[in-house]
Amino acid sequence: xxxxxxxxxxxxxxxxxxxxxxxxxxxxxxxxxxxxxxxxxxxxxxxxxxxxxxxxxxxxxxxxxxxxxxxxxxxxxxxxxxxxxxxxxxxxxxxxxxxxxxxxxxxxxxxxxxxxxxxxxxxxxxxxxxxxxxxxxxxxxxxxxxxxxxxxxxxxxxxxxxxxxxxxxxxxxxxxxxxxxxxxxxxxxxxxxxxxxxxxxxxxxxxxxxxxxxxxxxxxxxxxxxxx
Length: 228
Hints:
3 helices; 13 strands; 41% strand; disordered N terminus
């Protein structure tokens, strides 16, 4: 009888060990995401940014262009002609409603240079600044109620009170390891949602895509992040 119990306990122990080893931890899954983005030479994706809820929701629509190592351009169609451009050392934002160009010089390794979380630099910043865990588990779940699209959901919580966002949800495709949606809760204001869709990978985006001709008659403000 005792031998049977010991044998059963050993078998159960091996089973539990094998089961635990088969589970991908949230940090391991996140590391796989980082490797996927780090291996890309470039990507293009559609982006929708939403704030508010219900009848008060406001949306922006754009196309995102990323090229290794850290060049990023976001061309908006809503609001039309708005542009965000990051070249590695300079952040440029054109706000058409004010005909204003905002330029900011970015110091090397500054977190202010990370204009988009869906980049290798953005993911590295998240790893340093937030704890990472599965929201409910490693199993994929619907993107939203009634959706057939499956995603893995990661819950990120800030490590210090200095971070811009208190909490972040990353909804990631389990097949491609690419971010499908980001939901972020800022210290003040309502939730901001970034929806990425229709990724085009490694298409050979030319360097000229990251050149920007300032619109004529636009006013310019330099180093706006430090203006009082």
